[in-house]
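Design review, sub-item: ligand-bound model
Attendees: FS, YL, KQ
YL presented the inputs for the phenylalanine complex:
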Amino acid sequence: DQYTSEIQAFTAAKAEELEAFRIKFLGTKGIIKDLFEQFKTVSTEEKRSFGKVLNQFKQLAETRYNELKENFDAKPAAQQAGQDLTLPGDGFEVGSRHPLSLVRNEIIDIFKRLGFVVAEGPEIEDDWHNFSALNFPEEHPARDMQDTFFIRKGEGGDDIALRTHTSSVQVRMMENGKPPFRAIMPGRVYRNEAISARAHCFFHQIEGLYVDENVSFSDLKQTLYHFVQELYGEGTQVRFRPSYFPFTEPSAEMDISCTICKGAGCNMCKYSGWVEILGCGMVDPNVLENCGIDSKKYTGFAFGMGMERIANLKYVIRDLRLFSENDVRFLKQFQSEI
Ligand code: PHE
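KQ shared the predicted structure:
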């Protein structure tokens, strides 16, 4: 009786359980086999009733086993192994691109459509490529404009430093090729500054260079104007202010109209309505000559921008340190971007 109810109640979640059931009741050393052994010793009077119960019992076990087995064989393997396919799946974390990568990719895309290629160079630079070729006079305070991390202070222009800008890549490109050049140079640069919300000892730049015959300042303006329309949206205004860089003449800084709050007070522009985004100018003929390019035949423009600044203005990020802290709460916010 006890076995009967056990058999009736039995269900198997896993194939192994069903097999265990088979062994227990129907196996060669199973309960039923055992009962048949006992049957031999039962007195003749009792044999009839005992035999009847025994046969019924055997049938019950077999039927239950076959039922369950059929049921089981019809199920997918995962379910046979006892997994419940109706349970919700485990969630998994999807990564996201770093905002600086997003911005870099977007800028590269825009300039690629204008025929610019991407060029890269070393982060550890010599004095020539970072300064001298770019028309920084020796011992000139302009070298201090960009607080440099020197790796080796050498004799007479023998210094090795972490590059302070990616303009060094422009020099390498011009030295190693022939005009026309049309390239942008993304990369990390280093400056010896105390880390705060507004400054860091490293950041990322994208510089651009276009050298060919008859390249003019109006080409520079139109190119950068187009770039800004693509990046910040149609109708973004630009203005150029005169500036100074040793390697460009004339030089300018470009501001864009603040597109974030449209003047309503996000304070990214300190309520002026304008934010500076890049430096630019016509490549100084001295720089062209330093790189072996005929400055009578060729002219060019160059520009350089900090990617962090571009990202700040796109995503309203107010603290530079966020870019390098790897705080997932910050990084997660860019999941929806491509
Ligand atoms: N190299 C300059 C800087 O780091 C930016 C710049 C590049 C300005 C090209 C003009 C032309 O500040």
